[in-house]
Design brief:
single chain; alpha+beta; Thiol Ester Dehydrase, Chain A
Length: 117
């Protein structure tokens, strides 16, 4: 839920807060697919469509757009549930590139078959 501490001078939620929530959601999706630790290496096509307001619930949806040897592209959309109970409105979209890494932080291959945790 977007809270007053996350607002800018205009009273809207900071874009950086939204980006952070999307990074968390993308990391969860990528980590589940990789079966381990992942890191964000790029954010592409970040588009802020509508503002997020205090009291909105941010709902983030992910899909895996591409899988390489150690990287994957995660497509993310953020939707605001207005005033916790109201209408849903798409507010942001972006592509995040995540890389699977080992315990030393080096890229590691993504399994061909999704890992069940």
């Amino acid at each position: 839920m977007a809270m007053p501490a996350n607002t800018n001078a205009a009273g809207d939620i900071f874009g950086g807060w939204v980006l952070s929530q999307m990074d968390l959601a993308g990391g969860i999706a990528a980590g589940q697919r990789a079966g381990g630790r992942v890191v964000t290496i790029a954010v592409d096509k970040m588009k802020f469509i509508r503002p997020v307001h205090v009291g909105d619930v941010l709902c983030i949806y992910s899909s895996i757009a591409r899988i390489g040897t150690s990287s994957m592209e995660i497509r993310l959309e953020a939707w605001a549930l207005r005033h916790r109970f109201g209408q849903r409105e798409k507010v942001t979209e972006a592509n995040f590139t995540m890389v699977a890494v080992d315990e030393d932080g080096r890229p590691t291959p993504i399994p061909k078959v999704p890992v069940t945790l």
